[in-house]
Amino acid sequence: MPDTPVIERIEFTVFEITVENMTADASGLKTGYAPGRADPQVRFGLRIYADTGVVGEYVPGRSRARVIKSASETLAYSLIGQPALQRERHYRAMRGMTTHIGEVGIGALDIALWDLAGKHYNAPVAELLGGYRDRLPAYASTIHGDRHPKGLSSPEAYADFAEQCYDLGYRAYKMHGWHGDVAEESAMIRAVAERVGDRMTIMYDASNHLKTLGDAIQIGQVCDECGLYWLEDPYADGSVSIHGNQMLKKNIRTPLLLTERVRNLEPTIDMLVAGATDFARADPDYDGGLTGCHKVAVAAEGLGMDVEIHSCGPVMRHLMAACRNANFYEVNLVHPDCPNPWSLPFYTGDYSDQLDCVDADGCVGVPDGPGFGVGYDWDAIQKAALETTVIE
Q: Do residues 47 and 170 share a domain?
């Protein structure tokens, strides 16, 4: 057995990417389809170096990089000199340190520690988590609607894109709409259901844009009419009100998918037990990394309920591969005329989360190398770097 690795240093690199036909504001919180634009978007990556020479790596695909990086950097000091394989102890310690300030910094560090462990044991992370499958049914998850002729600018455009996704192999499709107009969102749901409802599983994510519980009930009844698989994050309670979503469930039949906007194990399970949601949501970047999300999945399974993994990437694939009670892998955020900004340009090898990543059966594979089974082109990342921070 190799020597137990001890963490020597942690490096954070902030860098920029551009995505064709996509705009982004300076905060990284707002992105969208914009023909002819390719605004810079900030990302970051981290490497955890152990004294045995093993390096755990992670580059989140999502934006909001500066917020997550600064929170992770603050926590990184506590890991220096610590045993690299004691992920549960580090998870608990970091949760204690973030009680008053939010837990978003835990995820990236925990994920890199899992990558390090997989490389230490020469095993895929999904195998370390228990292993269940190596092919994942996927759904195409659209970017939010726009007003451009080549974009998602009408109910018919969403239906056309659903057919395009079906032709690529997808058998499930989720719509992110515009910004909460009940009539417009209802027309879009109906158009997609009429076009592909007999061939595809359909979901709708309101992203909390519906303004009131009354709006959510109206949309929910349209989802009932169209036989949707779930209604996600319905209205402006922020998807955190147990009572509000209990009331919504009394008025509609379509299952609810919440908990994307509550953090970590306990609030998520409270919502399941209270009957405020039918599915749990888990996001490794936000919910305590692999350690926190696997706890959510197992707890949901103990209640006889399912967990849906939020967003895409190698980490999400490995997590879902170890979960019996997860239904679909989310290929987000896709668009008919824009690359997926979540699929990094700096993977080595052939890994991709672009729209065409599925096979003919609408599934994606799980990388089978040590750790998360993917490499990053750190030379290219360094060329695009804005800053590097070393903690030791």
A: no
